[in-house]
User: What shape does this take?
Amino acid sequence: MLNLIFFFILGAAFGSFLNVCIHRLPRGESIFYPPSHCPNCKKKLRLIDLVPIISYLFLRGKCCHCKSPISFRYPLVEIITGLSFVLVAVAFPPQKNLLDFMFSLLFVFFMIMVFFSDLETQVVPDAATFGGIVFGLTFNFIRGLNSSGEAIFAPFLSAFSGMILGSSLLFLIGWLGKIVFKKDAMGEGDLYLGAFLGAYLGWQGVLLSIFLAYLLAGVFCVGLLLMRKVKMEEYIPFGPALALGGFITLFFGPQIIAWYVSILAL
Ligand SMILES: [Zn+2]
Assistant: This one.
């Protein structure tokens, strides 16, 4: 229990850093300089204002200098990252396989970044996707080294083909969408995100992620249309759905795929 609390606090601290990335990366700003400041009055934040979640409650969601409201996204990302780190620690215990644990933490970190960046700014930061592709391929290469014979290369080959499959499948869907709906349905960032998901989750994982993304986006859009929150021709970013699909696949992918295969075998 104590170690889960530790992972939650660790995650919340990373979430605090994620908030900086989510705000700055899509705007092409440095994530290290200048130090954290209020986007409204530009004044530097005090050390105590940087404590995740608690500082938001303590400040009652307002800047300590100019009293302008702080986006609820800040504590939300911190809580979600904290919970995600706990989930990773439960699903991939570090004492069992440290490599899986470390890379899964990185993966959820990137997924949360993509989710909120795209939702807020309609930009999937290249730093997240290109960084993700490199670390995904690296992870699967190292993972294979535990095996022997030809199996050494199996995870890497799955990752490499997943990278190609993810980006080309989304490209194809976007291309068809353009013909049918006469407008760009898929951003360039989505294609890189597809490559990232494939490079990390392998070819089966990326197929499942894309399928889940369409399922989630479909349900979400029907819901919004029914509530008359959006109009049919409005733009809805697809990146968050892909990130969520990848997130679910990381934790439940093998079970869902095994279940699907068992249905096919009936
Ligand atoms: Zn301020």
Notes: Residues 188-226 form the longest helix (39 residues). Residues 61 and 71 are 7 Å apart (CA to CA). Residues 38, 40-41, 43, 63, 65-66, 68 surround zinc ion (CB under 6 Å). The mean pLDDT is 90.
